[in-house]
Amino acid sequence: MKHLVRNTVGVALLTGLAVPSMAAIVNVGGVTWDTDDLFDFTSTSGNIAQEFTIDGDITTLSGYGRVDFINFASDFCAGCELTFVYGGYESEPGFDPTDPGIATFTGGWVNVYVDNAMDFNINDADSASGGLLWLSLEAADGLSVTSNQQGANGKGLLNVTGGLAATYFDTNTLTGGADLEFQTSFTASSGYTRGSGNIAGDTTAVPEPATIGLLGLGLLGSALVSRRRKAD
Predict the structure, then answer these.
(1) Is residue 122 part of a domain?
(2) Under 8 Å between Cβ of 49 and 125
(3) Rounded distance, CA 84 to CA 152, Å?
């Protein structure tokens, strides 16, 4: 009986250690955020540069920027920075941002990088693609751009295709099974080349290997106690 009591207590302790199997706050490449946050996941940027590449009557949008906030907190990346580059969004024939209305861009991709150099420069496109690929995304439904003489706003859905943080973002929770939404806003006074935006959606906490190991030990202990009871 004493052996049974000791084993039962041991299993209880192991099971207790294994209870917090999901961590709300995660850290991927130095970038931290709370997957249970009310705004999860919202990255905000006030530093985006965009350019138009015109080939015949087709305009391609591309740009780059730096993430300034995640879930409206600025301390998400201690000693590092999160930047992004996007491109490949092709317009309908004859697109002109100064014409009021809505235009649809097809294709498109977004790559997000984490960089310890912290050397982002809004006037240098290369400074936005340094470091490690943190998240790669491709357009799920193109990009809808509403423009007028005051400015232009873009909105589109994205699917995760890779990167360090892919496992946390591949949730398929938006329309059509998309993972994230990409939004931008540009002022007419800058020639629609300077603006702000965000990438938003839902993320999930992933169990850590050590926690999974504790769960395994707890189940093993339960099996041993069960066998001991049968033997007695």
Answers:
(1) yes
(2) yes
(3) 20
